[in-house]
Design brief:
By secondary structure, this protein is of the alpha/beta class. Helix content is 29%, strand content 26%. The strands form four sheets. It has a six-stranded mixed beta sheet, covered by helices on one side. Helix 5 links the parallel strand 10 and strand 11. The longest helix is centred in the last third of the chain and has 19 residues.
C-alpha cells in the first residue's frame, strides 16, 4: 500500500492553508498514494486567540473540505487535526484528528490525549490553556492497515503506542507540529523508537517553517518501517513524501523477532 505524508506551514489564514493542503494531497494521489496524512492543525495555526476563534465542529468547513477531498479522489485521508469545538457544550475545545474513507465518511476520530505544556528554551507553550485533553485510545481499520492514532506530543508517551499494539495496530499515524527547539534532537530518535518497539509503520506528517513569530517547527516529516528504517524523509519545504508499506516484510520481522509476543502483562499489566 502506498502512503503519503504532507508537510506544510500552516498560518492564521485558513483559506490559504486548505489551498496548500489540497494541492499537496492531489500531487501525492497523482503519484499513486492510497492514504494521505496531513499534519497537526493543518487548517489553522496562530495565537491562542486565533485558535479559539477558528475552532469548528466536525461538520464545519475544514472537515467537510477533507471529506469532499477524500471522496473526490477516492482515498483514505487523515485530516491531521483541527481545533474542534465540542458539540456537547460549545465551550470545550479539542485537538482532533479524523480518519476519512474513500466515500468521504469519518471512520475514526481521535482527540489528543497528551497536551504540550512545557517551558524549555525556544519551546515555551501551554496547550492546556486552549485545549481540553481527550481520554480515548483510537485504533481503526484502513484497508490492510490497522492504524493507531496519535498527535505530536503523544510521541513522548510509549504507553499509548503499546496500547495501539495491544489492539492490533500495524501502523501509527502521528500528525505533528514538532517544535524546532526539541525536534532537532528528539524527533527522529523518538519516531524510530516507537516504530522499533512496536514493529509498526509510522507515518509522521509535520509542520515546517514558522507559523508566527513565536511558532517555529522542525519539519522533516518521515515515514518509517517496523525495523525503524526511514522509508522517506521530507526536505525543508512544503512538500509531500511517499512510501510503499510492505506488510509481508512486517510479518517477517514480527515472526523472526517476536518481541510483541514476549511482553509480560503478568508483571507490567496489559501495557507491559
Amino acid at each position: 500500500m502506498r502512503v503519503a505524508a504532507v508537510q506544510m506551514c500552516s498560518t492564521p489564514d485558513k483559506a490559504r492553508n486548505l489551498t496548500t493542503a489540497g494541492k499537496l494531497v492531489g500531487e501525492a494521489v497523482d503519484a499513486g498514494a492510497n492514504l494521505v496524512a496531513l499534519p497537526e492543525l493543518f487548517n489553522l495555526w496562530g495565537s491562542a486567540r486565533e485558535l479559539r476563534e477558528g475552532a469548528e465542529s466536525l461538520d464545519g468547513p475544514s472537515i467537510t473540505w477533507a471529506r469532499d477531498l477524500a471522496a473526490n479522489r477516492s482515498i483514505m485521508l487523515l485530516a491531521g487535526s483541527i481545533v474542534e469545538r465540542s458539540e456537547r457544550d460549545g465551550e470545550h475545545l479539542h485537538n482532533t484528528s479524523c480518519l476519512i474513507d474513500p466515500r468521504g465518511e469519518i471512520v475514526a476520530t481521535y482527540r489528543k490525549i497528551h497536551l504540550f505544556d512545557v517551558d524549555v528554551p525556544g519551546a515555551s507553550h501551554r496547550e492546556s490553556a486552549t485545549i481540553t485533553a481527550g481520554n480515548e485510545v483510537v485504533v481503526a481499520d484502513a484497508g490492510p492497515l490497522r492504524i493507531g492514532m496519535a498527535t505530536c506530543y503523544d510521541l513522548r508517551f510509549p504507553e499509548l503506542f503499546r496500547e495501539h499494539l495491544a489492539r492490533g495496530a500495524n501502523t501509527v499515524v502521528l500528525p505533528s507540529a514538532f517544535t524546532a527547539a526539541t525536534g532537532k534532537d528528539h524527533w527522529e530518535p523518538l519516531l524510530r523508537a516507537r516504530a522499533i518497539e512496536n514493529q509498526v509503520f509510522v507515518i509522521a506528517p509535520d509542520q515546517r517553517g514558522s507559523s508566527t513569530d513565536k511558532l517555529h517547527w522542525h519539519g522533516r516529516s518521515m515515514i518509517l518501517d517496523p525495523w525503524g528504517v526511514a522509508l522517506a524523509t521530507a526536505p525543508d519545504r512544503d512538500c509531500w513524501i511517499a512510501a510503499d508499506l510492505d506488510l509481508d516484510a512486517q510479518h517477517h520481522i514480527r515472526t523472526t523477532l517476536p518481541s510483541g509476543d514476549h511482553r509480560r502483562p503478568d508483571i507490567f499489566g496489559d501495557k507491559g
